[in-house]
Amino acid sequence: MRKPTNLLTPEYIRSLTGTRCQKVDAERNDLSIVMPAMTWQMRNAEGKRVKIPGPVHNAAKYDREAALRAIDKLTRPPEAELEPLPAPDGVITLGYAMAAWKQRRFAMSKAKKLRDSSKDTYGYWLKHIENWTIEGRPATSKPLDDITPVDVDDLQEELSDRSTTANKVIFVILSAVYKFAKGKRWTVYNPTEGLERLPTDPFQPILSKAEFAQLYEAAWRVSNSDPAAWPLLLICNTGSRTAEAANIPISEIDGNKWAIAATRAKAKKAHVYALESSQQVFIARRAAGWKTDVDKTNAVRHLYQKLLKQLGIPKSGVHAIRRHIASVIAEKYGIEAASAHLGHASVTQTAQYVKVWKEKRQEVAEDIATMLFRAAEVG
Description:
Layout: E1 5-7, H1 10-15, E2 39-43, E3 49-53, H2 54-59, H3 64-74, H4 94-101, H5 105-112, H6 121-131, E4 133-134, E5 137-138, H7 149-158, H8 165-182, H9 209-221, H10 229-238, H11 242-247, E6 253-254, E7 259-263, E8 270-274, H12 281-288, H13 296-311, H14 319-333, H15 335-342, H16 347-351, H17 361-374
Parallel strand pairs: 1-2
Antiparallel strand pairs: 2-3, 4-5, 6-7, 7-8
Helix pairs in contact: 4-8, 5-8, 6-8, 8-17, 9-10, 9-13, 14-15
């Protein structure tokens, strides 16, 4: 596809109105429908030929003065950094973030694969997104922090009857932006790599730090009278599954390495849970005889519910402890560390456990434009 050449002037930028692309002749100094991966090759007011990333050009429809400042940066030497375009009214919206995300190599590489059959990709994409409303509000004016997985599912259902290449690009960009904005930044360069599910707050409850501390103390108090307290304490120390903690052979607790070489209940693969060197009590339980029986798993669950009731903590399953530990590890060390500790096969699985701290969402969303626009290749 031939790259359109336009005469880029301040008057031209200021003449852009509305938020829709119209398919017109490129020589008429107006927008043409191009795929998101394409770069606009234009001339500035001084007649110098410059390459303008599509998102910068299209972002002019949201904030024309900001676009002028960005384009001015593009006319400088290649080593000059491109400052991020400020979002309209200072709020990162879905439409604005999606325009910014197009500049990432992730979206570009996906769109390039559809080059031969998607002449009007961006036009269809913009049209569908602008016509999509959430609770009566245009999607492009809804802050990213308010977008939920249900909203994304609604859009997908709305467009499910259309199997165009435009829709494929829509979902690529939409899912990428949503994953990055709603969760923590997994990696600096490609936050969506290997993360297929959206990191949202789990449907299952997670114990708070205060509730976890109360439960742990209560389990210690009854440990001398109730054998089920020991597997429960082991879960609190390692985040292991209930079946693993209840039926683990005492011989698997390695006092020399302060670890438990347990067998994962689901995948049936070996996994090591680390123990602190101060947790000698689990080693000492060998002398008391770590008995295992068929009803031990149910005994742990029964004790857990009993303690929750005594402490006035909302009802939940024992797995809430595992989710709490995953969230604490992810908050301090990252989701990859939490995934490794729990023995998950992938970060995708851990993302279903981890609690999303909402106060960080807008901060991450605001980083989208900063990181992506600075990564623009100018040459």
